């Protein structure tokens, strides 16, 4: 039985961001921050570790220092979109935590491209 998460496009690619793809528990986030690898992109730190699931999972931590609620919510939307566009369809599957830094909104296009390139390379 094949389990898919999110909507399936005509190209066969799975798109969307369902509940099973979220890292929400404080314990999981803390464990990921302590024991995972890190990658720096433009205005963004990516914390990642392979998981035993059948899909990637993602979380976003946005500090209040980056701006008000509107700004922080926009940054979270951009992070979810980067994740959605670069989901892996085969192992290795990752737990990924995005930690945006100052200037992320200005550099979001280049950060998204760097992240997507890194994710494609990591899947090989």
Judging from the principal axes of the Cα atoms, what is the shape?
globular
Main sheet specs = 4 strands, mixed
The total count of helices amounts to 3
Write the H/E string, N to C.
Answer: EEHEEEHEH
SSE class: alpha+beta
CATH class categorisation? Alpha Beta
Number of domains: 1
Oligomer: single chain
Spatially, the strands of the biggest sheet line up as 3-4-6-5
Question: Helicity level, as a percent range?
Answer: 25-40%
Question: What are the SSEs and their pairings?
Answer:
Elements: E1 7-8, E2 14-15, H1 26-35, E3 37-41, E4 44-50, E5 57-60, H2 69-85, E6 94-100, H3 104-123
Parallel strand pairs: 5-6
Antiparallel strand pairs: 1-2, 3-4, 4-6
Could you name the key traits of this structure?
124 residues, two-stranded antiparallel ribbon, Ribosomal Protein S5, domain 2, alpha+beta, single chain, four-stranded mixed sheet
What is shown here, in short?
This protein is α+β, with helices and mostly antiparallel strands.
